[in-house]
Amino acid sequence: MDGIETVADEQLKDGVDNCSSKLKLIDEDGIETLADEQLKDGVENCSSKLKLIDKVKNVEQPKERMLFGSIEELHEYYRSYVKQEGFGVLVDTKWYVTCVTIAYNHALSPGKARYFRSHKILDPCTKRKLEINDRAGIRMNKIYNSLAVEAGGGATALYDYFCRMRKANDDFYFDIDMDDECRMKNVFWADARSRASYEVFGDVVTFDTTYLTNKYEMPFAPFVGVNHHGQSILFGAALISSEDTTTFVWLFEAWLKCMKGRAPMAIITDQYRAMKNAINKVFPNARHRIYLWHILEKLPEKFGSHSQYNAIKSVIRSCVYNSQTCDEFDASWQNLLKSYNLEDNAWLLDLYKERTFWAPAYLKSVFWAGMTTTQRSESINLFFDGYVHSSTSLKEFVDQYDNALRKRVESENVADFNSFNSTVQCVSRFSFEKQFQELYTHNKFKEVQEEIRELMYCNCSLLKSESGICAYQVIERVQINSSYMKKLCFTVYYSEPSCEVNYSCCLFESRGILCRHVISVLSKLDDVLLLPEKYFLKRWRKDLKQPYKLIKSSYDHLSGNPSADRYAELCKYMCALAAIAAPNVDHYTELKNDIDVLTKKFSDLSCVPSPPFQLLPSASTTGSLAIDCTAVEIRSPHVARTKGKRVSNRTMSTVEKAVVKKAGGNKKKQSDTNPNQQYPLFAHI
After folding, report:
1. Domain ranges of the chain
2. Pair 232, 412: CB distance under 8 Å
3. pTM of the model
4. 35 pLDDT exceeds 50?
């Protein structure tokens, strides 16, 4: 353009910004304006100086083959021209192709295309890290080395990990949900050992997304249960990009596909509408429970400014923990609303409508495997605390993931060894305690002993006996504080012909442990020396061989385990035999019947649970992912946009707690975080 002088000097320095531009403008009146800008955008490292002297009075008309340095320059020219001619312009940001000519003046190399400047685009996560490091004064070479180490540390590293695991064991399962740009949105995976353990202990599952996120702000969502020792055991894990109904539906459906369509009987989750909607759709028959801590932790927020906050908190806790029946809970709740004029409190009204999801009185007859809901899910801390935190990259995550699981396997092996090679002494002379000692793992036997110790605070008396059914009243004295013990009354029905009991506290139904009230009655009966087998839950027995322990994994190679070697060898034979029999229906039926006979025979001989777990289907991928792992390129996810409040509610790992000081106002009193001391009735659920 006439009258415009442009001088540009650009320097590129290792792909990192340090852009300084000075713009000197002299307008037609001779007034000089000096602007100094310091731009840092994390993409280019350029230093440019532009000197523009504008002496143009008339803008020339558009003509063919006019040359512009940028779209912005074109827009500026056209605006000036239309202003000169006296009409306005609307710039349309949409473009369409008018002509295509596919021709090149150089040799093509798609494998090296990423080195072209036009393809060197930093994602928001890397850009943010550059900005933070620059403010912290970290030298450029150190920043570059750090980024180089993390290159490939996103979705590609995670996918490579999946491929390695699948190559080692065909029963490793993973499912990746991608967007239109082939960026990872959500991912779920479960190794062969975890899938097999779900066959044994998958009746109750906890699902918690509040523990931590990674550097992409993707919530980590593990599926956790408990084993025969009461220890946390991992069934599968996921990284999700959002926490809406659509995402949870995708995740739960991936879970079902992985677990052969077997949904958990009960599931414990956060209190979020999207999660509840997804469970209703994918697990319609599962009993859904909400973490009680999620509700109780909101009491200061909802009533902290109320003049009678302490009294309201005490009444709510008493209502929750001391109501033995649903009717008692309902009456106590209504009394709370009336006593403190809270009939119009929207939060309490909504809670009451959903009381079947969180109130212990409504849930005590369902088996929860002893998983407590009165505090944050400690199972997640037990698994990953000290290994991963909110700044962990996906590459670091997959490395630490195996380390965390390896530690849990070792803890289970130690507990197995102790249960078989040492003895916990009995605390009474009851014959049925000896039964529990011989059958249960140490941890579960100690829980039975705790109930036996509490017998000294229970007083049992016969109310009536009719048609072989005796009704007993058990009065228990419960320690409330150092100077007060409260009396609680329970009813136990005992049938003499079948040695069957029915009782109001439902500890056996919810935890699989006989309660002190039943033991109090049985201890009074001279004709009851040994308990029927139905009161010994197989789930807690130490004498049953767990088949998932024979499956090798990346975190447990089972080296030196002859049983695992024989198992792997037999699997090869069975696969070959299945390949021979499968093409013919008659051969398939005959082989299946023979396997059933052999299964029963060897189960009786070796005390392996019958029927044993079934082999799970081979790993698969979904969507556009190919079976050939080397043919897939998955881009790292965008930094997820999560709800602001959700991030602050996430539990910090030990690593993060060591460097982050808690605000004094966030500290809670012991009575707020441990309600079981004051309200022990339903402390077990």
Report:
1. 155-306+366-411+620-654, 429-540, 555-606
2. no
3. 0.69
4. no
